[in-house]
From TrEMBL, chain A:
Originating organism: Desulfamplus magnetovallimortis
Main location: membrane
Gene Ontology cellular-component annotations: plasma membrane
Key words, A-Z: Cell membrane, Membrane, Transmembrane, Transmembrane helix, Transport
Protein name: Proline betaine ABC transporter, permease protein
Pfam families: BPD_transp_1
Record-linked PANTHER family: OLIGOPEPTIDE TRANSPORT SYSTEM PERMEASE PROTEIN APPC (PTHR43386), PEPTIDE ABC TRANSPORTER PERMEASE PROTEIN (PTHR43386:SF25)
Origin superkingdom: Bacteria
Cell location: Cell membrane
From TrEMBL, chain B:
Alphabetic keyword roster: Cell membrane, Membrane, Transmembrane, Transmembrane helix, Transport
Transmembrane segments: 12-30, 102-125, 137-161, 181-200, 250-269, 289-310
Domain ABC transmembrane type-1 as annotated: residue spans: 98-303
Pfam families per record: BPD_transp_1, BPD_transp_1_N
The protein's name: ABC transporter, membrane spanning protein (Oligopeptide)
Organism: Desulfamplus magnetovallimortis
Location in or out of the cell: Cell membrane
Keyword Transport: yes
PANTHER family for the chain: DIPEPTIDE TRANSPORT SYSTEM PERMEASE PROTEIN DPPB-RELATED
Main location: membrane
UniProtKB/TrEMBL annotation, chain C:
Entry protein name: ABC transporter related protein
Organism: Desulfamplus magnetovallimortis
Domain ABC transporter: 5-255, 274-515
Keyword Repeat found: no
GO cellular component: plasma membrane
Taxonomy, superkingdom: Bacteria
């Protein structure tokens, strides 16, 4: 593991640096941030100063503090959602691949139907019906996103499943649990690791987009997508406040994508 | 030839079923609303009488399957009901906005498709050179950026700093075509960046895949010129995957307009959908959601059929 | 006569593990008009690399480090791309192993024939087209006038391979490189292609390099043979001379006719451990891929199941193991009727019937160590754990002739093909089975490695009286190991019996064709066969 990290290319190291920095901010948000998440401490859209490193927002809250709390809220939410989506998607995908037959058929048809629906539109419609709260947000996005995880893990598991060592295990009389956990999972991890990164990016961007549309995390919670929306008006006055949270989102996704690229490269290399 | 026709018919049939299922989901979704649409919309201050009257108006007193049949029947005939927010017919609202959205999508496709195929081919031909790596990093970044980030950077650059394009894409019917084009230049540029990045990467991968085939090596060994290998041997086989890539990305484009329309306050269908979701204007949400879905499914259908037709393995010598 | 091709001190390097490493060392080679030179060797011998280098071509990740390649006075080593292009196709042409992959799926076969002469400016389209039809006829392709109008996927494997031989002739080059042109084909189809090669090299007086791993095949077509190993020349000589009196030990090993089996009697009194009756099976539910299969395997004996691709021999293995449950019929194993579906068989039945696969690469989980692979059946079937398991694993490794200390903690990915196949045997043995089904266990391995595996299996049978059902397409293997032979064609058993009985005439018509198609280590074999066929044909 350490050897792998030492061999990693510069791009992947930059990506890991960005990711670790964000995780650090998220974990110690309340210690680092100079002001409270929601307290109004200055004037509207003050520019950078010693008091306010990144200036203030549209109602005079410290932007720097809100950026840090935003890291915590957005990153944590995206992470939890991705984990949930992976748990649902990969377990269903593996079961479909190993069981085959009608289980596979039924699951795959349902997933096809959901995937034929554009994700954003689907999410918007669900949120319009059930309203936007953190639990609904997590479940909605996790379920929608798990369809892609399902597709990939099913495909990966199918590729492994046709190999003779799995057949040998079946003929030995091994049960479903052994086949999934001992024969398939260890071989599926490299491609799924990369996919986890990709899905995280997607979920993260998706939540940011929903917040930007005013349908994600609700104010006064600090959240990067929402902060872009709140401060959007500033841009026409030549004040670049909304670009700061937008750039933070871009930076984190680029970072994760750099790691993903490296992982994809690794897992394709491992197959040779 | 018969086989292909059969395959295409099957694929079209599957899409029709999907559209039907989606209409059902959209309808049931609204049904599942806790309580009742009437109560939700009118709020808690409403008197039982007004709620009752409203229920009548929405025909909520009829059984669900009858309402679904009427709703679908009306939808097919272009009658989407009335907006809850301003009581105007939904069709009226949707029509104008749909044409605006299509204009934006088409202008974008017009720039993005040739651009990304051109860049994709170049990157594949000069793979692993500095040029390829630069393109790769640029496109990776564009894929990672949220649309609104690209949009605000473009606004900051072109309308705040340079002041050459408007930051709000306001159009109306009295404007000439070129004025409209001028108004939507920044939103379509934003979309172009995103779509081109995806399309170009996939085009590159598809072409590299073809260039690695044994028949390309065979052509080289036969002493065929490089240019002819690309045009005669690689291109016909790359066509099918590239067509698929283009169509799938255009499907994405149809949905990708939502965010960009909101940033530029562009009067399109996406903006309408987002507004209606916020206002819980359900008939409008239903109609625009279904239109988006149909467009998306249709583009995916086109992707599959076109790449099926371009697949060389399906060619027959007619013997 | 002057040399057409002259290669001197050729060194080729490959890029792996982050540096350039030599893969072909100092090869010298000369080829005269009308001469066929056979390049023979196992995988990694560098024979294909040399074949391509003769055209001044290297695959990605390889480069010609030094040496000289001279074709009719033109030096290719430092030639420009344009000069190379002019030589390729027109003066020297190439026939690849997989015709299916080497034909462009988008264009008709004849257009791909015509392309090279037209592009080299040698002929007009119409003229080239006429010649194509002529050569299709000479290579015995059916309906030569119209076959070229088809797309590659509309031709069979043997036809496509002959169409590619024809395509190589399109510019009338002086030299042709044949790179394993028959390896992917069945033996009966192989004859057609070999006849086509013979037609071209003898009647048209071309020079050729013929690359293969099969000495018997190369003996039919080559005048001279070079034996290669790990990119180095082992031995070179006239074909007859080399076959009769090989100088090097390695060549002798390759030439060794396998006869591992002392005759064992099969009496009717011996225990029948597997008795299959009236089996039928289907994949689609419509047509049956297996029909009326009756088969007996006796204790301590080997039954060889022979057939070409599509004969249903591997399907039969899947049916007996229960992976593809038969739709009717019965399987009696060790005196008991067992269920047709493996899911309903009990653990003990599963244990007593083990399987070894064709591809050792995919038969072992790449994430598991040897200890886990062999230890699992011990624990699963017998509950053996800890120290005792460790001892049993070591014992098994010794049995399959691998050193326990070196191998016990290796991952499957850290083993060579032959070692992997040995581990597969150990895994099967760990279950203490009564019957092992061996599905083409040597066909993915190099000749000598494969023979090692056969030796081992034979040895184990002598010691433990285990039975084998041996599935193969290779009749030489059959002759070497079988007690009883079962011949399959299109899902049916067409002939079965004791080895002697099946191998001595009179045969079933198909058995005859099959046996006659296996090349013998006799340079005159193909000529005699073709003469015979021609005379019976007339």
């Amino acid at each position: 593991m350490i050897k792998l990290l030492r061999q990693s290319p510069l791009s992947a190291r930059i990506g890991m640096g960005i990711l670790l920095f964000n995780v650090f901010l998220a974990l110690f948000a309340s210690v680092i941030a100079p002001y409270e998440e929601t307290s109004v401490v200055g004037d509207v859209w003050e520019s950078f100063s010693g008091n306010f490193f990144l200036g203030t927002d549209h109602i005079g809250r410290d932007l720097f503090s809100r950026m840090i709390y935003g890291a915590r809220n957005t990153v944590a939410l995206a992470f939890v959602t991705t984990v949930l989506s992976f748990l649902i998607g990969s377990s269903l995908g593996f079961i479909a691949a190993v069981k085959g037959g009608w289980v596979d058929q039924m699951l795959s048809r349902i997933i096809d139907a959901i995937m034929a629906f554009p994700t954003l539109i689907f999410a918007l419609m669900i949120l319009s019906v059930v309203g936007s709260s953190i639990p609904t947000l997590i479940t909605t996005i996790a379920i929608l996103d798990s369809t892609r995880v399902y597709r990939l893990s099913r495909a990966v598991a199918m590729d492994i499943e046709v190999m003779e060592f799995v057949e040998a295990a079946r003929l030995r009389g091994e049960g479903l649990w052994w086949i999934i956990s001992q024969e398939i999972l260890p071989n599926a991890i490299p491609p799924l690791m990369a996919e986890f990164g990709l899905r995280f990016c997607f979920v993260f961007l998706f939540i940011a987009s929903l917040s930007f549309l005013g349908l994600g995390l609700q104010p006064p919670l600090a959240d990067w997508g929402g902060m872009v929306r709140e401060n959007a008006g500033a841009i026409t006055f030549g004040i670049y406040t909304p670009l700061i949270p937008a750039a933070a989102i871009a930076c984190l996704t680029v970072g994760v994508n750099l790691i993903v690229d490296w992982l994809l490269h690794l897992s394709s290399g491992l197959q040779d | 030839m018969k086989n292909i026709l059969l395959l295409i018919c099957k694929r079209i049939g599957a899409s029709l079923i999907t559209i039907f299922v989606i209409s059902l989901i959209i309808f049931i979704g609204v049904e599942l609303l806790p309580g009742d649409v009437a109560e939700t919309v009118l709020g808690q201050s409403a008197t039982p009488e007004t709620v009752e009257a409203f229920r009548k108006e929405l025909k909520l007193d009829l059984p669900p399957h009858v309402r679904y049949a009427t709703w679908l029947n009306h939808f097919v005939h272009g009658d989407f009901g009335n907006s809850l927010a301003n009581k105007r017919p939904v069709a009226e609202l949707v029509n104008w906005r749909l044409s605006n959205t299509l204009l934006l999508a088409m202008v974008t496709a017009f720039i993005a498709v040739p651009l990304s195929i051109f860049l994709g081919i170049l990157a594949a031909l000069y793979r692993n050179t500095l040029f390829d790596k630069m393109i790769s990093i640029t496109t990776l970044s564009f894929i990672s950026f949220p649309e609104f980030f690209i949009a605000y950077v473009l606004i900051a650059l072109f309308s705040v700093q340079l002041n050459i394009f408007p930051s709000l894409a306001i159009i109306d019917d009295n404007m000439g075509f070129f004025n409209k084009l001028y108004a939507i230049i920044l939103p379509s540029l934003t979309l172009t960046c995103v779509v081109t990045a995806h399309m170009m990467r996939q085009t590159r991968a598809a072409i590299i895949n073809v260039l690695g085939s044994a028949y390309i090596e065979m052509a080289e060994i036969k002493g065929i010129r490089g240019f002819r290998i690309i045009v005669y041997h690689a291109f016909p086989n790359a066509l099918s995957p590239v067509i698929n890539v283009v169509a799938v990305n255009l499907a994405y484009l149809v949905v990708g307009v939502v965010l960009v329309e909101v940033v530029f306050v562009y009067p399109g269908l996406g903006q309408l959908l987002v507004d209606s979701v916020a206002k819980r204007d359900l008939p409008v949400v239903q109609a625009s959601g279904l239109i988006f879905s149909i467009a998306y499914i249709f583009m995916n259908l086109a992707a599959d059929i076109l790449s099926m037709l371009a697949n060389p393995k399906l060619r027959q010598s007619n013997f | 006569m002057d040399n057409l091709l002259k290669i001197k001190n050729l060194n080729i390097e490959g890029f792996y593990e982050d540096r350039w490493q030599p893969i072909v060392h100092n090869i010298n080679l000369e080829l005269k008009r009308g001469e066929v030179l056979g390049l023979i060797g196992e995988s990694g011998a560098g024979k294909s690399t040399i074949g391509l280098a003769a055209m001044g071509y290297t695959r990605q990740g390889c480069r010609i480090a030094s040496g000289s390649i001279n074709i009719e006075g033109i030096e290719l080593y430092d030639a420009s791309e344009e000069d190379l292009r002019l030589v390729r196709g027109s003066k020297i042409a190439y026939v690849a192993q997989s015709a299916a992959a080497s034909f462009n799926p988008s264009h008709r076969v004849i257009n791909q024939y015509v392309e090279a002469p037209v592009q080299h400016g040698l002929m007009a389209y119409d003229e080239a087209e006429k010649e194509a039809i002529d050569i299709y006829r000479r290579l015995f392709l059916p309906t030569p006038e119209t076959i070229g109008l088809r797309y590659p996927h509309e031709l069979s494997g043997g036809q496509l391979q002959r169409a590619m031989v024809a395509m190589a002739m399109s510019c009338k080059p002086d030299i042709i490189v044949f790179d394993e042109p028959t390896t992917a084909l069945d033996v009966t189809t192989q004859i057609e292609v070999l006849a086509a090669v013979k037609e071209i090299t003898e009647t048209m007086n071309k020079a050729a390099l013929y690359i293969t791993h099969d000495l018997a095949v190369v003996a039919q077509v080559a005048n001279r043979i070079m034996v290669l190993r790990n990119g180095r020349l082992v031995e070179e000589g006239e074909t007859r001379q080399l076959i009769k009196k090989p100088k090097e030990a390695y060549t002798r090993e390759l030439l060794n006719v396998r006869n591992l089996r002392q005759e064992k009697s099969i009496s009717d009194k011996m225990d029948v451990i597997l008795k299959v009756r009236d089996l039928k099976a289907t994949y689609t539910g419509r047509e049956n891929v297996l029909e009326d299969i009756d088969l007996d395997v006796r204790k301590g004996r080997t039954v060889a199941l022979v057939g070409e691709s599509g004969s249903g021999k591997s399907t039969l293995a899947r049916v007996i193991t229960g992976l593809l449950p038969a739709i009717c019929g019965s399987i009696n194993f060790l005196g008991q009727e067992i269920p047709l579906d493996f899911k309903t068989r009990d653990k003990d039945t599963l244990r007593r019937l083990q399987m070894i696969y064709q591809m050792p690469d995919t038969a072992l989980n790449p994430r598991q160590t040897v200890r886990k692979i062999i230890g699992r059946p011990l624990k699963f079937y017998f509950g053996i754990k800890g120290r005792e398991a460790e001892e049993r694993i070591r014992e098994l490794l010794t049995k399959i002739e691998l050193d326990p200390d070196t191998y016990i903690d290796r991952l499957a990915t850290e083993l060579s093909g032959g070692e992997k196949q040995r581990i597969c045997i150990a895994r099967a043995l760990a279950a203490r089975p009564d019957l092992i089904i061996c599905d083409e266990v040597t066909s993915a391995l190099d000749q000598l490695v494969g023979e090692g595996i056969l030796d081992l299996l034979q040895d184990l049978q002598n010691k433990t009286n285990i039975s084998y059902l041996f599935i193969t397409h290779d009749l030489a293997t059959v002759k070497a190991i079988a007690d009883k032979i079962v011949i399959m064609l299109e899902g049916r058993i067409i002939e079965q019996g004791d080895k002697k009985e099946v191998l001595t005439p009179p045969h079933h018509e198909y058995t005859d064709k099959l046996l006659a198609s296996v090349p013998e280590m006799d340079p005159d074999w193909l000529d005699n066969l073709l003469d015979k066929r021609l005379s019976t044909f007339i």
